[in-house]
Amino acid sequence: MRVAIVTESFLPQVNGVAGTVRHAVDRLTTTGHQVLVVAPGAGPAAYSGAEVVRVRSLALPGYRSFPLGLPDPAVQHALARFRPDVVHLASPIALGAVGLRAARRLGVPTVAVFQTDVAGFARQYGVRAEHLIDRWVGHLHRRADRTLVPSTASWDQLAALGVPDLHLWRRGVALDLFDPGHRDEALRAAWTGGEPGRTVVGYVGRLAQEKRVRRLAELADLPGVHLVVVGDGPERGWLAERLPAATFTGMLRGPELARAFASLDVFVHTGEAETFCQTVQEAQASGVAVVAPAAGGPLDLVAPGRTGSLYDVTDPGALRRAVGALVADPDTRARLARGGRQAVAGRSWARVVDELVDHYAAVVAPVPGRLAA
């Protein structure tokens, strides 16, 4: 099959959208499909056997590392030249809208993957545009032939916008990378200064307002805890000032990231607008007890008391209490860690991308009366 992926983000960016596309390309090319990627901003012109067409972009204020794709005739030219069987729209909002229009003009079926709650992020930044954003997101997904959502919360969100033909498509996890066997006692000692008996609690992700990372300050003086913050972003300075005893590793990738995950005792996530929350899966695969918000994607990933712990995001003390309970109870930590690892045992990226191909196949059959944009 010839698959064109029009994505809002791709390498060298590191985020959920770029990561999902990267794993999809890896598996698609390995299994014999021909792939074209259309992405905004500067970056590699090829990846894993697929050509990457770069189009015009604009750096967002406060997010200089995140290029926003702009309308560019290169999108339709690239699709017309490649002649895809299907166009995959990865988290469409800006460049995805251009790709959708081009695909409809060319009569190519589309699969749209909802991955970013842009309206939710806007709320975190105090931008009063949720209604307009939701209308735009609904408009795009209603025009796609099929929409894939990562969680039941996302399903409900898009169904409320009138989007038809919704299908649940979860994310995979790199089970060959994230594993309890990577736990490193020397690394833990370096984090804690060799102080015995400390429970290492960690956050992994972008240090940005939409992730609600300022809630980590609630854990600053939790007895017996050493806090580790993995990642980077605009909120790092604020956090470092209020968490002087914490370890800030910066962004980690590959084996270093896997080692950091497995060396935690408790993983905590603070974001309330996550459509999925990939780092929860990575922590579970690493054999680490999880504390996550009872909102969005984590509601599907964490079964309280079995595969992790959820806290009420409306309760200012809930995060601290949830983490404190696990710090005080190593047996429960171990049980939740085992349950979490068992829950993700079958979620390899290979299996998940093979499911994606089934969705492609479902829309490739000729659709009578397809309208031009």
From TrEMBL:
GO molecular function (one): glycosyltransferase activity
Domain (Glycosyltransferase subfamily 4-like N-terminal) ranges: 14-176
Sequence ranges assigned to domain Glycosyl transferase family in this UniProt record: 197-342
EC number: 2.4.-.-
Protein name per Swiss-Prot or TrEMBL: Glycosyltransferase family 1 protein
Keyword Glycosyltransferase appears in the UniProt entry: yes
Pfam assignment, any one: Glyco_transf_4
Alphabetic keyword roster: Glycosyltransferase, Transferase
Gene3D superfamilies given in the database record: Glycogen Phosphorylase B (3.40.50.2000)
Keyword Glycosyltransferase in annotation: yes
